[in-house]
Input
Amino acid sequence: MPAFPTDLERQIADAVGALRHGGVVAYPTDTLYGLGADIFNESAVERVFTIKGRPRGMPLPVLLADAEQLALVTDLVAGEVPPLARTLAQEFWPGALTLILPRSPHVPDLITGRGWKVGVRVPDHPVPRELIRRLGSPITGTSANRTGGPDPFTALEVRRQLGDEVDIVVEGGPPPAGHASTVLDLTGPSPRIVRVGAIPKQRLEAVCGTLL
Output
């Protein structure tokens, strides 16, 4: 377990306590500030939609502490990670790559917009990974802003947009880089880029071959 400065350690402990009781917290990641709730607590996930003003039916990305937690949220044949997903995880996780994979039936419909896919990522930032480890559950990884609002790079920007609707805003650790993650869909016959973000297409093609 990483060692954190005293103030950040207190914030992390408080945030985990809030998450365990159905709270919603904002936290820094390697990309932007994220808005987190325990993905298996449907009332907490409902609050995420309400706070953001996000329409139900829009999927929420999921953050993991490590690649081993894929088994909690994806429908893997015999518990095996698809070879390409494993290769991409080894190459880019922790990091700014979101992989879209078949969802586990245990993942609430709210998270996936009632679809059969789930977007997952392991962030390259110690704070969200520690929140997830201590909570023992993946958390939502949507940006901590109003839907359509400016990307949140700082705790101050989170507070400007969301006010006191968030239970805790964690400050500390490396600042976000300010670029959203790249999203890659692995559920079809060939990998498909859904969004180009922090990881350029050329780096992915070096691993996957030609992408759509």
Q: What stands out?
A: The chain has one domain: 6-204.
